Amino acid sequence: MAEQLYGALAEFSTPEDLLAATRKAREAGYRHLDAFTPFPVEGLDRILRFPRPTISFIGLGGAITGASTALAMQFFTNYDYPLNVGGRPIYPVSAFAVVTFELTILFSALAMLFGMLWQNGLPRLSYPVFNGERFHRASKDRFFLCVSADDARFDASETLAFLSGTGALSVELVPE
Questions:
Q1: Do residues 123 and 162 lie in contact, with contact meaning Cβ atoms separated by under 8 Å?
Q2: What share of the chain is helix, strand, coil (3-state, %, to 5)?
Q3: Angle CA(3)–CA(9)–CA(13) in degrees, nearest 5?
Q4: Dihedrals φ, ψ of 49, to 5°?
């Protein structure tokens, strides 16, 4: 049975080498790229073209849902159990402010938490790239570029040859 591949992983010694290799990979037509570095590398995100995060819209949706839920819950409660205390109106919106505020914040925070987990694909129990032979140095002093096997241009032997041609210290195939 043929082993499924996650992608090809190339190791570089400097961030400049990684940036140059990433540019070459983009120019060669590779689109499903990912990079692993021990510290943020200026300009790498623009070359990799990460999608803009939509977490703020998810938070806004959670806030609107929380406020709507709080107001609906309080209106429903006052409708079913009207208490006329001191001549106040049956729907005192100003008295609903605290609960509405609290549920708005709670729903917004929970929506952003679950939205962040969903966007990052978490929880993920294993990530194939972590099994790379030299990948343990990604958090120390090496820079890695991964070309996913999902890429339309990916061919195991051609991609390894391409990554070797970019000046990589080592290249390897990453099994799924």
A1: no
A2: 50, 15, 35
A3: 155
A4: 55, 60
How far is C-alpha 1 from the geometric centre of its chain's CA atoms?
A: 33
Q: 148 is written with which tokens?
A: 């996913």
Average pLDDT of the chain?
Answer: 92
Cα(167)–Cα(16) distance, integer angstroms: 11
Report the percent of the chain where pLDDT is more than 70. 99
The letter for the amino acid at 106 is L
Report the SS3 class of residue 173. Answer: strand
So what's the pLDDT on residue 94? 85
Q: Is 39 exposed, middle or buried (0-12, 13-18, 19+ CB in 10 A)?
A: exposed
**What long-range pairs does 72-80 form, CB within 8 A, spacing at least 24?**
73/99, 74/99, 74/100
pTM confidence score: 0.72
Between residues 29 and 53, the one the model is more confident about: 29
Compute the distance between CA of residue 117 and CA of residue 66 in angstroms, rounded to an integer.
20
Looking at residue 2, its pLDDT comes to: 59
Query: Percentage of residues in the chain with pLDDT exceeding 90?
Result: 73
